[in-house]
Amino acid sequence: MSKLHELLAVETDLEGVHKKVVEEAIVTFSKKPEHFLGQTKVLEMFDEAKKNENTSEFKEMVTTVGAKLDYVAGHVIRYFDAVYQKEKANQSATADLIVDGAVVAEKVPATFLLGMETKLKNLRAMYEGIPTLAPGFKWEENDTLGKGVFETAHPDIKFKTAKQFKSQIIVQPTKEHPAQVEKWAEDVPVGKYTTSIVCGMLTPARKSELIGRVDKLIQACKQARQRANCVEVESVVIGKKLIDFINS
User: Fold this and answer.
1) What DSSP line would sit under 182-244, residue for residue?
2) Fewest C-beta in 10 Å: which of 102, 112, 140, 196?
3) pTM of this prediction?
């Protein structure tokens, strides 16, 4: 008795040949009816003097529909039997899902494990897209604002300014001339902005940790599936029964 993984290794090839043979037969049946026709054409002159003009033409028949069906049936039977044996084996192909030495789930079907690999890879893409806390700030988790909420440890302080005009006498006035005065504007603080930022993103370390756990599950599914696929395949057949029923 062979192992399930050995059967899976050849199933694709059997499927490909089966598909190719069936498609070729469809083309032959629908577009090449002359393959199933033969012909003999004989010319026999009545006049003895023209007997040398007698001719014979032959066109051999390539095959029969029955022979074509028999040829296709051989490949169909092998493929159907392989699929049947695989599905029968899958009913008992199970393995424990183990992560870091701990059993996460017991006797998980191989078909489920195979599907989970794809599903977990799609889920990983979501975790890869998680935004993380911006660098350049010291972030502190603040549970009073909610679970998973961070706040900057040091508020950003900026001053609000307003222009104030000032003047200064450069030359004192005299009886003949007024004073010479210099005027200018200065930005003078009139208020203060205090900005504290809150953020619900994850730390880069936490994001990496989550992605790492997804990767562990993906690897665990692969390993469990390999163990499950070591189940022995029962040599059951069904293809010939199906073909015999059709062609009877």
Assistant:
1) EEEEEEEEEEEEEE--EE--B-HHHHHHHHHHHHHHHHHHHHHHHHHTTSBPP----HHHHHH
2) 102
3) 0.68
